[in-house]
Amino acid sequence: MGIVAGLDSSSESTRIVVCDTDTGAVIKQGYAPHPVGGSGDVDPQAWLMSLGEAAEGGLLEGVQAIGVSAQQHGLLALDAGGVLVRPALVGNDKRAQSAAADLTEALGGRTAWAQAVGAVPTASQPVAKLRWLTRNEPDAAHRVAELMQPHDWLVWQLLGRPVRRTTDRGTASSSGYWSAANGSWRPDLVQLALGHQVRLPEVIGPADAAGHTPEGLLISAGTGETMAAAFGLGVGVGDAVISLGASGSVFSVHHEALADPTGTILSYADATGMHLPVVHTLNAVRALRGTAELLGTDLEGLSALAMKSTPGSYGLVLLPYLEGERTPHLPHTAGTLTGLRRESMKPEHLARAAFEGMLCGLADALDVLRGRGVQVRRVFLLGPAADLQAVRAIAPAVLGAQVVVVQPADYAALGAARQAAWALGVSHGTHSPHEPPRWPAAASQVFEPGEDLPVGQSVRQQYVAVREQIHPGAFESGAFESGAGDQEAPGHGAAGGYEVGGGYEAGGYDGM
């Protein structure tokens, strides 16, 4: 028996949970906001200051090991002496959009990138930030000798800045220059983006230790927020996770990396040695929010209105592409409302159409994974919108699976703590490096499609018919090859008590 800590440094704050190694029970918690904004140029010392504040009051006394989860897609560029050449570039910085498009073309298009690293460059990824840096700050770019992401840098700082630099598969897979399929760095892609070679961290295994602090505290491998949240939730093969924020994301644990030539699936690695394919939508709760504003109500009011309607919304169908869409790849389109008749022009039917449209759009994303052989027996819904009655009532039948709504918790921090317990157990010889500690599942409510499944599938068919009429062939592979500039999902951050991987582009949610 012992105690371990999980530290999650998101784009907005630091959260720490201290847990029992055997049961996973949370003993103590700490929190501190970051003293600077979460976008643009960030001084990473702010993350250390926030960590210190979150750990005040002896929070870490008696802790034997720490796991670190951090926001993904940030870039820390260091010179040959280990000094930052400029402030950190964080994930939700959109300045590299044109750089991402240029890189896509430079390697030969979306398919070439998907085959190389399982993801097409986007503005958030470090590989695109490198190209932006080369273009806009050439003097700084010339001095870059080493690259890290936020999780790597924090681990390095906690260890006292040793000669050895480490990262994990999860963090590496979100860089744009590491292949989850091959388990190796692609220095040629760094060369393509930056113009010269640099030092990259050693990628260590999920149960490995990055090292020990000067005080002897074990630091585990750590990982990105998405991967830590999945580990904290305890999801496995057969589980999918849908994060309901302004935009949406769908991810699942899978036994192999998925090379998707369209670039729709981002092929990441998880925190256990498995893989984490991710699909994004640009429109989720923002479609609900916009409809609620149109009807002069809030989300709770919209949900209550929707429950007065019936499945199919009297023929109203909303394609919720309010910000363009990423899945399917329709970056320049707009939302569409069809089926207007005198009897359907009532607030409750529009409200229901908004919920059905949002969930059908997420079901489209889920079907992208299913179409590649990913098993989906149950779906975890994350984010405050999962508490809305209309979501709970409609989601199981439309998604065609058991739906699990978990209670709010700091799941990324819990995942980091679980990883720390794993590494500690391996170091003591009490755990296998191939089997993580079994902690209790997250407290949740479960909703079954039951007899409503055929009705839900009819709603899907109505939605798909409209989508194919308005955007024919949107999900055919060729439709994803046009247009180099993907629109980016807004940066994800935690709110409402859920900490589920704020910057991933994968797995968290970005508020409502």
From TrEMBL:
Alphabetical list of Gene3D superfamilies matching this protein: 3.30.420.40
Pfam families: FGGY_C (PF02782), FGGY_N (PF00370)
Keyword entries, A-Z: Carbohydrate metabolism, Kinase, Transferase, Xylose metabolism
Stretches assigned to the Carbohydrate kinase FGGY N-terminal domain: 4-222
PROSITE patterns membership: FGGY_KINASES_2 (PS00445)
Source organism: Streptomyces rapamycinicus
Residue numbers spanned by region Disordered: 478-498
Domain Carbohydrate kinase FGGY C-terminal: 240-424
E.C. number: 2.7.1.17
Transmembrane residue ranges: none
InterPro entries named among the record's database cross-references: ATPase_NBD, Carb_kinase_FGGY, Carb_kinase_FGGY_CS, FGGY_C, FGGY_Carb_Kinase, FGGY_N
MF GO annotations: D-xylulokinase activity
The name this protein goes by in its record: Xylulokinase
Family affiliation: Belongs to the FGGY kinase family.
